[in-house]
């Protein structure tokens, strides 16, 4: 009886270790029907992503406007200097 228990013990521990090391992955990270996951489908996520994109575009436009204003000031100064020389 003791011999029977010792032979079953290593088999059980090997099975336990093997089952603990198995990882299960989805074949298709996008849903099986081709749609995105729950996070990407949620309205809150879409709104947050859109707001982030809008903020980025707004900041880029602000930088462009600032450069244009600086350029305009330089050109205005050149024009004013030319008017002064003409007089």
UniProtKB/TrEMBL annotation:
Q: Which InterPro entries match?
A: ATPase_inhibitor_mt
Region Disordered: list its residue ranges: 25-46
Give one GO molecular function term: ATPase inhibitor activity
Q: Name one GO cellular component term.
A: mitochondrion
Instruction: Specify the domain of life of the species encoding this protein.
Output: Eukaryota
Query: Where does this one sit in the cell?
Result: Mitochondrion
Q: Where are the transmembrane segments?
A: none
Q: Which residues form a coiled coil?
A: 48-85
Key words, A-Z: Coiled coil, Mitochondrion
Signal sequence bounds = none
State the similarity comment. Answer: Belongs to the ATPase inhibitor family.
Q: What is known about what this protein does? A: Inhibits the enzyme activity of ATPase.
How is this protein named in the record?
ATPase inhibitor, mitochondrial
